[in-house]
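Hi U.,

Before I forget, here's the chain from the pilot set. I'm dumping it here mostly so it's searchable later in email.
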Amino acid sequence: MLKTSLCLLSVAVSAAAFADENTKNSYSADPLEHVIVSGSRIVESIDEVPASITIINQQQIQQHLKVNPELSSLLAQMVPGLAPSTGSSSNSGQTLRGRAPLIMIDGVPQSTPLRNGSLGVKTLDASAIARIEVIKGATSVYGNGASGGVINYITKQAQSNNTASGEFSIASRFSAVKPAESAGARVSAAINGKLDKFSYLVTASYEENGVQRDAEGDILGLLYGLSDSETENYFTKLSYDFDDEKQLQFSYNFYSSQQKTDLGDVVGDGNIGEKTYAIHVPKELQKQGKPQGPEGNVNITLKYLDYALLENTQMTLDLYKQDIENVFFFSTALANPDEGYSGGQSVIKSNKQGARATFNSQFDFDNLTTTLIYGIDALNDKTSQPLVDGRVWVPEMDMESVAGFLQTKWVINDDIIVKAGVRKENIDLTVADYQTLKLCKSETQCSVPMSVRGDTLKYQATTYNAGIKYNLTDAFSPFISYSQGSDISDIGRLLRTATVNDIALIQTQASIIDNYEIGFTSQFDELRFEFAAYRSTSELGTSNKFNPVTGIYEPVRAPQKIWGYEGLVNYTITPQLKLIATYSYVEGKNSANDEYLGAKQISPPKATANLAWQAHDDVALTLSYLHVGDRKRFARNEQGQYVGDQGAVDSYNVVNLSGQYQINSQWSSYFGIENLLNSDYYPARSQAYTYGGYNIKGLGTTVTLGANYQF
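Structure:
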């Protein structure tokens, strides 16, 4: 009922908004942003960072979210090197340069690297985000889990004036192919202001999806699906300025997104071109268990900033706490008929508590500016993956981590930038005695449970980075860099498939990733080029291999090499017409066997284009294009089938259109059309993943109508 009411209200408000043409529009393009905070944990110019960086500003966020509210879709469209969107709630396979990125909110990690469930991208609603910074390539600046780089959501700040302001937005989204049951609704609101030394920002959003339909009008399959999902997010940021130099900041984030549906899947065989789709089914055939998705994840952060601790030194102190419960779908792969289980449903539980102290000291000499960034990080991460029925699939992993770091930057003659740094990390990972589960693919095909003796595993890693950038001219600014990342991610997947009786015998060693990169930026008046080529190696990568005896995909640890290149063109054709186009290519191999890596890590080539046109003072239109190329590296087996994540990927193209009409200084109305040409396609992951239920088509033409009120 709420969904229907909001849908009708949204259309009514949109119609009223389009009818009012009284005043001019304040909608305008933001300039190219030149300041980042993610590269070295301090504010610095993008021109002083010898690495590939993508910044997505608030205008770009809002443009794309008129088409699709999912951040994974936005990131895939705007970030070269990031794999295509999966079209689902899971970002499994959506790697950054072939490795997993670390997702953060204001520098606080959101991913669960000890048992990576690939749900980290969905942690915050876009209405709370001011900008997104993406640092590409392995880094240890923020600790474990950033083997592919960092995606940092920078949240909004309160306005600096003493008056309250805010906005309210309402929208409806529905299938243009077959509207029946597809209408969804979204409302969001925000208010912020300042009272003397106290400032506040509060945002809230609620969204209900209808069913999602492909180009043929069928309901998309339910595996990590977004049909009938309900998403709510509440974000608060409170700040108190003791004086001009000292500030205390508190933030709270609650996020929940769960699929609550009465549908059931008709599972097709991707090897013969059959899609998986959903239909209405009797209750006994509906999805079993709890609704899948994040079940009320909470983040709390307390930050103290002193911009003048000493004459030339700034200090930032962070305390943070995080409670995560990500519920997964019911799966017959977790069956054990001997104990009466026809399947099971797992939950990744992660509780983190952390503290960080970061200091920034700057010294100016003749023709030389030196910056030292140093500090200490402490983290306790307790992660497990039990089943809803009480069985334990992955035992609790209790990680205690303490790390010290030093990052240096020298700016010579204002045009040569040299950066170098080191991080020393000590990790204790404690796992109690446990037993692996007996899991049965059939009554005669079961894994053998193992009793495994627990222990405390100790890791020590020292990682380094160095880079140089020469701002020779605006037309040519080359850079070269080397960085390392220390990664003990997804230990849980190794523990749950153990085939030995002692945890010390499992290959749980940390992986050191070496990342080499060379590139340049060029600025010619209104035209900007960016290009980078890279190579990434690790001695202990983790991939999968199918065990035909147990029917289980087991982890394989072997050396890996990944390489690729990417480019970006940003062209202001006229003050009213702007184009951003990207291209990225990535490939990788298991170095030991000279075998190509599967789609869990390597994505097909990708090209994007975004054309923004300010057609009138009051009217703005954006046309976006996505091309995903072929990737066919693997042969079928003796049964004529692809296995694991080795399916062949055929190319596809998607065109989107969005627009906004500014009615007056307070009201605006907008529309978005995803898959404007109703392309009938499977997303790259749906083609490459041969696991049951993943072969789900992409969205057919889907329309969003909405209106926004600012006060």
